[in-house]
């Protein structure tokens, strides 16, 4: 059995070096006291791990140490990253933290019970040299009194995966991140109720949070199919704002379909259409790991999706 802190075989070392070079080219560098890098990543079924450098066709799960080192190399380029699809078994997550080292920490929810929740947790992984917890951690619940505003019988069963809010501080800046993973369904109406619920909740909360000069940013997998569709409009109905840099068609969410608009990073604007943030947004995008991560293994995109993910990480850079 191999371990995450072992020295990988030479051919894997070379692949990880190629990934590092690609990360340098695609992502902004961390600058002490200058910038803040926030990301969101739905890591497909991020749970168990086969502790081999390269898994075999008969192994389950398919995710191996090579894949996990690639995931960790990507994560460490950000200051804080919201991760969706963390499973009940957190072996892969624990090994990721071991590799990242003592300067990294995490905070996560328990498993969402029920078949619709898919046995998932929400998690934040963060670099404690750059970001610290500032006190708040909560799961969001929509009050029944709001049902008339977001649809008949809306959310009587609450969210299938409860949105998770955590506050952080970076220097003198305090910010609250809310991550979520909206229910996926083949029928649009199956997701509209959740999107209306979260948009209403965030708008109401933001009116209080912003009054205290705290930044509120929502990020995660909204399962919005395409730009400008009904789900997108529902998500934006309460004033949530997605910057143009993250609406650009070059910013891709899915490794299989460039039109998908699943993942989002958004915040609210005030009445003058100015962001309700004391952080200045600089730029954003996605990280395309296809050219380098596991590129030496000659595997299909489908196989790659089980080793890494079927989603790209989405990121935003802010000036401090």
From TrEMBL:
The keyword Nuclease applies. SUPFAM superfamilies: DNase I-like (SSF56219). CDD domains: MnuA_DNase1-like (cd10283). Keywords: Endonuclease, Exonuclease, Hydrolase, Nuclease. GO terms for molecular function: endonuclease activity; exonuclease activity. InterPro entries: Endo/exonu/phosph_ase_sf, Endo/exonuclease/phosphatase. Residues 39-237 form the Endonuclease/exonuclease/phosphatase domain. This is Metal-dependent hydrolase, endonuclease/exonuclease/phosphatase family. It comes from Ulvibacter litoralis.
């Amino acid at each position: 059995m191999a371990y995450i802190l072992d020295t990988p075989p030479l051919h894997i070392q070379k692949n990880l070096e190629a990934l590092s070079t690609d990360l340098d080219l695609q992502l902004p560098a961390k600058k002490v006291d200058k910038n803040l890098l926030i990301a969101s990543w739905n890591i497909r079924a991020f749970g168990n791990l086969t502790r081999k450098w390269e898994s075999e066709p008969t192994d389950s799960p398919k995710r191996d140490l090579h894949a996990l080192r690639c995931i960790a190399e990507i994560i460490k380029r950000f200051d804080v990253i919201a991760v969706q699809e963390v499973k009940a078994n957190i072996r892969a997550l624990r090994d990721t933290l071991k590799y990242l080292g003592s300067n990294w920490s995490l905070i996560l929810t328990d498993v969402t019970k029920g078949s619709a929740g898919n046995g998932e947790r929400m998690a934040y992984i963060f670099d404690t040299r750059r970001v610290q917890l500032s006190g708040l951690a909560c799961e969001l619940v929509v009050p029944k009194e709001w049902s008339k505003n977001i649809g008949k019988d809306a959310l009587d069963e609450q969210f299938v995966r409860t949105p998770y809010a955590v506050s952080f501080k970076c220097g003198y800046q305090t910010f609250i991140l809310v991550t979520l993973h909206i229910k996926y369904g083949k029928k649009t109406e199956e997701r509209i109720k959740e999107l209306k619920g979260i948009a209403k909740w965030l708008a109401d909360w933001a009116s209080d949070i912003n009054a205290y000069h705290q930044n509120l940013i929502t990020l995660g997998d909204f399962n919005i199919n395409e730009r400008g569709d009904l789900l997108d409009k529902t998500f934006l109905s309460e004033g949530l704002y997605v910057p143009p840099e993250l609406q650009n068609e070059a910013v891709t969410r899915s490794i299989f379909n460039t039109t998908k608009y699943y993942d989002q990073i958004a915040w609210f604007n005030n009445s003058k259409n100015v962001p309700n943030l004391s952080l200045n947004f600089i730029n954003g995008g996605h990280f395309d790991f296809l050219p380098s991560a596991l590129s030496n293994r000659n595997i299909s995109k489908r196989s790659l999706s089980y080793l890494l993910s079927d989603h790209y990480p989405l990121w935003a850079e802010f000036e401090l």
